[in-house]
């Protein structure tokens, strides 16, 4: 894991190098999603990995239930980050909260002050806004994503955002173990993935392979 800004509270003082975006729809529904979490929970303890719970379009009640299930299944082995209301993350004592670009707040809300905070950004202007409230940024899509249709911005765009940002930047979008090195060379502190793990035949092995790539093995 890498250090964030020393001037702010950071839960456990750490930012993950790998964020697995456990998207319910990408997994094929709640049952396969839960099984995905069970398999991810098999990875060795102590790896610099966090799991983000993402379920677009769900109610706050549904998000709360999914986040609580993730916390139970992962049983403290991996930090859980909620792509949803900070109040729910705080209530469930999760590790962090993640904001999509359109939901980046102007100020850190009180309920998020003791949470690990991250935000998705797709350009330099959004990165400038996000670094005021987030401990780390998730930038992309760097490569064509496997979980949705979107245009890739490329490694040079990643390089520019990394050079300008005061916060660690994680690359997202079409990330594979083979592409990790190029992202790190562009200045990324780590990566975030969806399909590389969610669609993998062996999610735990896929996570381990990504971590190996991040650590130069």
Give a short synopsis of this structure:
By secondary structure, this protein is of the alpha/beta class. The protein has one domain: Aldolase class I (TIM Barrel).
Outline the structure in words.
It is a single chain. By secondary structure, this protein is an alpha/beta fold. It has a single domain, classed as TIM Barrel (Alpha-Beta Barrel). The chain has 9 helices and 8 strands. The chain has an 8-stranded parallel barrel, surrounded by 6 helices. α7 links the parallel β7 and β8. α2 runs parallel beside α3 and α7 packs parallel to α9. The protein is globular, with a radius of gyration of 16 Å. The two termini are 16 Å apart. The N terminus is likely disordered.
The biggest beta sheet reads: 8 strands, parallel, barrel
- How much beta, percentage-wise? 15-25%
Uncertain regions spanning at least 5 consecutive residues? 3-7
The CATH architecture: Alpha-Beta Barrel
Structural class: alpha/beta
User: In total, how many domains does the architecture comprise?
Assistant: 1
Number of strands: 8
- Give the % helix: 25-40%
Strand order in space, largest sheet = 1-2-3-4-5-6-7-8
Helical stretch tally: 9
Global outline: globular
Q: Could you give the order of the helices and strands?
A: EHHEHEHEEHEHEHEHH
